[in-house]
Amino acid sequence: MAVKCDNCPLRELEIFVPFTTEEARFMKGFKIGELTVDAQTPLLIEGSNAPQLYTVLAGQGVRFKTLEDGRRQVVNFVFPGDFIGLQAGVMGEMGHSITSATEMTLCVFDRAEIWSLFKSHPDRAFDLTWLAASEEMFLGESLATIGQRSALEAVAWTLQRLFQRGEALGLTTANEMPLPFRQQDLADALGLSLVHTNKTLAKLKDRGMVLWQDGVLGILDRTGLSDVAGIPMEALRPRPLI
Amino acid sequence: MAVKCDNCPLRELEIFVPFTTEEARFMKGFKIGELTVDAQTPLLIEGSNAPQLYTVLAGQGVRFKTLEDGRRQVVNFVFPGDFIGLQAGVMGEMGHSITSATEMTLCVFDRAEIWSLFKSHPDRAFDLTWLAASEEMFLGESLATIGQRSALEAVAWTLQRLFQRGEALGLTTANEMPLPFRQQDLADALGLSLVHTNKTLAKLKDRGMVLWQDGVLGILDRTGLSDVAGIPMEALRPRPLI
DNA sequence: GTCACGATATGTCGTCTGACATACGCGCAA
DNA sequence: TTGCGCGTATGTCAGACGACATATCGTGAC
Predict the structure, then answer these.
(1) Can you tell me the distance from the alpha carbon of B8 to that of B185, in angstroms, rounded to the nearest whole number?
(2) H or E element: which one contains B141?
(3) Interface with chain A: mutation pick from B137, B157, B194, B236, highest number of A CBs within 10 Å
(4) A222, A159, A225, A227: which is closest to A190 by C-alpha?
(5) Would you say residue B10 has pLDDT above 60?
(6) How many Å apart are CA A57 and CA A102, to the nearest integer?
(7) How far does the CA of residue A206 sit from the closest CA of chain B (Å)?
(8) Which residues contact A35 (CB under 8 A, 6 or more apart)?
């Protein structure tokens, strides 16, 4: 890990969420610095109370829980703009771990400053709650996917949601986006075995719907994929940025 | 549905969260009234933007999502003290529906007042975020349960968590608590078929661990159940009340 | 009383998914 | 070059879970 500030991609993000000058000044004080980590680096650990919170500026990661016997559940995938450490920030304990999947650049905040945010910037505090509620909503959908959908439906649904997120973030070019995760990560996200996930992916590939190779996801048949996934292929609304 | 105020169980709840006089005055203005509904009454509908939010004063309910083809995923069970409608309150849209399982008494709030809460009562706004983060944490655990645990483990885990919640709320007497849900609700919560849920429950009953009959859950072997569930059988921390 | 309906219970059989084995390609180190 | 580890791919077999059928019990309508 090394703190650095060059080549900062923050400008990109400011396109999405324009700050007022006062807000910018406050957030600047809120911000401790920037952090760049390598791929496969643990950022936050389940059960810990991290003193620092992050906003992802670049790179991707994985949120996951580990059961006592080693089984792993991927709770969500982390993308630029995501806020990391909210649970530690308000509850004093993370419910899951977070690890980078690629090199990541993070905006670092001080946990103790959350209070001042609630006191002096209620609109930003509201955004924080919005993020938490949004995450809760997504987890509810994931629950429905894992609980109710078949393996084929679940994989199609997940790839579609990932691509929708990519589109909302401008990570896509034509019908492709970077997806630097392993099949094992997807399997752990869906509660499927690695082998069955692989075979299910092969089925979607055979049907000419998706192509996921070398860390790049390609959507070849949007409508077909939507039919299998059971949700319309529309883009997502933008999220507030903390 | 009928609004009434007699026989109000609010006193009970105030034991857990003492308000300052100013807070009490504010919350009193925040509160519109009380609502009592029969069992099996829809309270909030997925996708809707309810003008009113609730805190559960008495009774139990179910949060659930419905897929296009009718499949149902129970997201969580609702107990006294739970806040209902947060997603509609901050995002303008519910991600799941909520239906009462028993007769329920609810404290009614105005959705529009959430803003004033953030502006003038940052500590209460913080509690709101705490609740959202807490719910997110629980959903993460549920994901891990549905995704990773076997049917037997999952049922044991759920019954244990339900009993822990009951203990934290003072709903338990000795080793029993009211659990007015159907086996179908549990099945939909775990992504299992009704039949398999029934057989799994029978297995736990045969082992002398639990007894769930006539809306009453009895824990006969706490340590045995904990072993199967894979989590220690300790009580939960109290939650803030909105 | 009796009929219908919902919830729970239990058996049989089929299938979706997991476990295990094996193979291929690639990057990396000796 | 050779060997090793990691991720991906594919086949066979086994098991957990779902689908269907059926039965019991209690409640409510008539």
Answers:
(1) 28
(2) helix B122-148
(3) B137
(4) A159
(5) no
(6) 12
(7) 25
(8) A1, A2, A3, A54, A105, A106, A107, A108
Q: How far apart are CA B185 and CA B192, in angstroms?
A: 10
Instruction: Verify if strand D has an atom below 7 Å from the CB of A177.
Output: no
* pLDDT greater than 80 at residue A15: no
State residue B31's pLDDT score: 78
> For residue B39, what is the DSSP state?
T
Q: Letter for the amino acid at B91? A: M
Tens of pLDDT, residue by residue over B12-37, are 343 344 455 665 566 666 778 899 99
Output the pTM of the full model.
0.89
Q: Tell me the mean pLDDT in the region B31-56.
A: 93
pLDDT number for residue A232: 77
CA distance B113 to chain A (A): 13
Domains of chain A: 2-121 (2.60.120.10), 149-229 (1.10.10.10)
A213 strand-pairing partners: A216
Q: Determine the Cα–Cα distance for residues B57 and B33; give it in Å rounded to an integer.
A: 12
Structure tokens at B115: 């803003």
Asked if residue A17 has pLDDT above 50, the reply is no
Name the token pair of A169.
Answer: 């973030």
Closest CA to B40 of B98, B90, B86: B98
Tell me the per-residue pLDDT of A138-190, one tens digit each, with 9 for 90 and over.
Answer: 999 999 999 999 999 999 999 999 999 999 999 999 999 999 999 999 999 99
**Which residue, among A62, A66, A76, A129, would best test binding to B if mutated, counting the most B CBs under 10 Å from its CB?**
A129
